[in-house]
Amino acid sequence: MTSYEDGKRLRTEARFRRCCGALLVIGILVCVGLVCRAGWLQVVQGDKWREIKIGQVQGSFQVPVYRGTIRDGQGRPLALGVQKGSLYADGKLISDPVGTARVLAPVLGESRRELEGKLSAKKRFVWIKRGLSSDQLRRVTEARLPGIGVQMEWGRYYPYGDLAGQVIGFVGVDGKGLEGIEKIYDGLLRQDPRKVIAFRDGGRRRVWFRDASPPVPEERYGLRLHLDAFLQDTCEAALEEAVRKHGARAGEAVLLDARDFRVLAMAHYPSFNPNAYASAQPDQWRNRVVADVFEPGSVLKVFLMAGVLEAGVYGPEQLIFCEEGKMRLASHTIHDVHPHGWLTVRDVLKVSSNIGAVKLVQALGPRRYYDELVQFGFGRKTGVDLPGESGGLLRPYAQWRPVDFAVASFGQGVGVTTLQLATAVAAVANGGVLGSPRVAASVVNAENRLIKALPPGPATRVLSGKTAQYLKEMMEEVVQPGGTGTRAALSDYTSAGKTGTAQVADRSTGRYAPDKVTSVFVGFAPATHPRLAMAVVVHEPKGEGYGGVVAAPVFRHVMEKALPYLGVPPDKEPDDGSNRPRLVRWEEDRDSAGEISAWQAESPPRGEQQVIPDLRGLSLKAAVAVLKSAGLEAAPQGSGRVVHQEPGPGEQARRGAVVAIRLKDL
Amino acid sequence: MSLRGQIWVLLLAFLAFGVLMVYSASAPRLLRGGDVWMGLGPYASRQALFAALGIALAAFFERIPYSWYRRAAKPLLLVVLIALSLVWIPGVGVEINSARRWFRIGMFTLQPSEFAKVVWVVYLSAYLCAKRTALEDFRTGILPTCLLLAVLSALLLLEPDFGSCVILAGISFVLWAVGGVPWRHLFLLVPVGLAGLGTLAVTSPYRLERLLAFLDPWTDPLDSGYHLIQSLVAIGSGGLWGVGLGAGQQKLSYLPEPFTDFIVAVVGEELGLLGLAVLSLGVLLFFWKGLEVARRARDPFGAVLAVGLTCLVTFQAWINMGVVLGVLPTKGLAFPFLSYGGSSLTASCTAVGMLLGVARRSP
């Protein structure tokens, strides 16, 4: 019995050992099998699985690139990209359209019925309202309405409101520039989103790491304009004052840098706020300075004179008989406002005699007059960087009847834009070189650092320097006592210009309306070395509508603020004659515009040491004026702008000492 | 080093590696929530807490004379059967992913099936040693345990917990073999068992789908094959050396259960073939040492118990690795010591503690 038990136990134990051994063998096989399988996947097939992983884990992600900032010449932001919330509805999730509409209507300020209509549509995505204000956004979010969602979108904000509204234009809800600078530089300002490789998780959510942080929305290219917010505001204020004072329909003004045709201001009245373009009439969006064509009146006599003097038909001092104020031409009679007998050519411009102009244009001939106008840019686009520009209306001279070209001499029957007038007068101021106006200066990055300066427009000489000089002097007389533009005279600066008062054709009758005129003034200042040129147009003023009364004061108001703002040294003693001390500022170097240093020119006691001012970059006249006000003498050499001076700036000299200056044509 | 010391070193190494991998694999889920957390984060710190509890349990069971389990086996099995039924009582049982495997105790959930496996090993070992002489007869020997196993399996399948069922069947077979059940009875059971498993798999359509998915996951890569493909992508892209600890990307919501059932896939991705080889070697070492304990055991009960406990731990590890490597159908089995989960961790530590108890009392 015991032996049986023992034997059984021994057999059982032997079996146990065999089983354990088998288990161990199985275990080793399993272990080897698992490692082989892992090796097959990881080493042999590794590339295949890695490829699949990259395919699912990495994805391209679009970094929003928001619309570039538009800045003025001083870097002030005129148009900014901002995030705005937009409200949408998911029709499938809205169970109570009526109740939802009741909540939303007062917040959005929209009709409840209209909202109900939108909310009842069982569409998965309907825009309810785009571009919410921050207050609306907060109230809608707090209401927690089912099926109503907010999506953040990049929109546009114009911090200065209606300042230069028609120039800057606006952007539509889909981010496309629709008017103005926004439209013409749309390709630059609106950039495609940047693509980056980003990790995604299994739920298609993007995953960011410390060394691969989420990219922030960025701005790629901004635009800096020549336009200056201060000058723009000054222009708009002066224009508004004139329009309101004279009960006029509308007005426009352009301020150009006469040296390089930069558009410093382009004012409209009534103005337009691009922040609320949708609530404005499309008619108000238009940039009337470049798009609207009108008959300019007597300001065109400037360019007639240019032709006459250039062709040598008459000299400035030659006499013309002005028919005592009345002249018959075919079936028409031409009048002067004040009757004149014999006038010099110079005075024809000064008193703006129509009869004198007719006689001059008859002497010049239609072809040469036409050519002169074309030379100055009438009848064709100026090439400004703004959309919707009109070329004006200048019929070929071959189609002119004698009376047509006779009245064209004083600016009737010719259609021009305000900008054309401004560029043409700037060409005279600039010594006879006509440039193409430019609003935008350069491409900048988000930090307003220069990326690329935009090239200036093409320039052509349209007048000899000598004729331009004659013409400038003649225009200077217009603002002097006895001229038509005395209200354009400035207290600290010399100025020059020409007035115009044009009859307005009534569109319904095709005849000139008896009581409607356009008041125009074109001019530049300082007359001695012109810096700014301006054209002012006021449409249909009530009462006395002469250009010299309505438009010229706008010129004066703007110039008296703009010239000191730009640091142009005064070239005229104040009218009150007092030799009061004053702050004189000037440009250090014309190539580094904006670098302005100030210098206090107190009148020191005789015999004291005097600090020599920096004259570099100034014209001869300006340099002499600056030295004179400091009690110093000038010894000039050469012509053009000052490039060298002896003693140098900042050095001491006795009052009455002579400063040698060398000038060079730059 | 003594045998017990070697097993302790293996246990501690597995536990430490487990906390580390849970930390790595759970980080994306924490980050996704946008929470700011310090240190290990909720998952890894809980796992560390469970590991400490597990070490205490292992030390505790090491010191209990294993002969006591003979007497405790029957009551324990009864407790387990009751606990497995409790998950069906509303308010007590917890349903996660349409499976009722848990019930709630305070802030933790307990998975009774993990402990059922340990208890079944204890019970079957005690039964086989007590009925030594009666094993020759089919009815008095193997049949009662078969019926009990059927009841237990039925309860597990209702949850459903197919993976635990397979483990129970496999361990029972091994224990019957080493415990002295005649071979002819066992060979009779093989076709019966296989047929049973086959029917179960085929009658339940989702189970069949999962079964077939592993054979060719690409037939339905977005649904039934998705888990496996993501696991293979994780492991395959790991290469020889891995992408680096913590640098894995498949845990970014691609792997379905990156820190529980598929934690080995994270190991494969981040530590490569090297990591998987070391892990397999560790399991094999444990298996070898466990069988060594059984060979040196003082009495047959200790020997059979040691084999059962060793197999319980290693089989789960192997099946889990087989699933993750795409050679077995997905079952929802945890990898002992590594996968996040208190029940699995403490049950495994209890098993190792009992194994150490056997080793402690061997001559």
Keywords:
heterodimer; A: 666 residues; alpha+beta; Penicillin-binding protein 2a (Domain 2); Trypsin Inhibitor V, Chain A; 7-stranded mixed beta sheet; 5-stranded antiparallel beta sheet; 21 helices; 30 strands; elongated; B: 363 residues; mainly alpha; 3-stranded antiparallel beta sheet; 68% helix; 4% strand; globular; transmembrane (chain B); lipid-linked peptidoglycan transporter activity (chain B)
Structural notes for this entry:
The complex is a heterodimer of chains A (666) and B (363). Chain A contains 21 helices and 30 strands. Chain A has 666 residues and is α+β, with helices and mostly antiparallel strands. Among the domains of chain A are: 2-44; 63-221, Penicillin-binding protein 2a (Domain 2) (Alpha-Beta Complex), CATH 3.90.1310; 602-664, 2-Layer Sandwich (Trypsin Inhibitor V, Chain A). Chain B has one domain (3-29, 66-360). Chain B has helices at residues 3-32, 41-63, 68-86, 112-130, 142-158, 162-179, 183-203, 205-213, 226-238, 263-296, 300-324, 342-360, and strands at residues 93-96, 99-105, 108-110. A three-stranded antiparallel β-sheet of chain B has the order 1-2-3, with no helix packed on it. In chain B, a hairpin with a 2-residue loop joins strand 2 and strand 3 (108-110). The chains are: A alpha+beta (666), B mainly alpha (363).
Given the structure, what is the number of helices of chain A? 21
Number of domains of chain B: 1
Largest sheet of chain B: 3 strands, antiparallel
Class from secondary-structure proportions of chain A: alpha+beta
Q: Largest chain-chain contact?
A: A-B, 37 and 50 residues
Q: Distance between the terminal alpha carbons of chain B, to the nearest Å?
A: 16 Å
Estimate what percentage of residues of chain B fall within beta strands.
under 5%
Keywords (chain A): Carboxypeptidase, Hydrolase, Membrane, Protease, Transmembrane, Transmembrane helix
Region (Disordered) (chain A): 588-608, 635-654
GO biological process, one term (chain A): cell wall organization
Subcellular location (chain A): Membrane
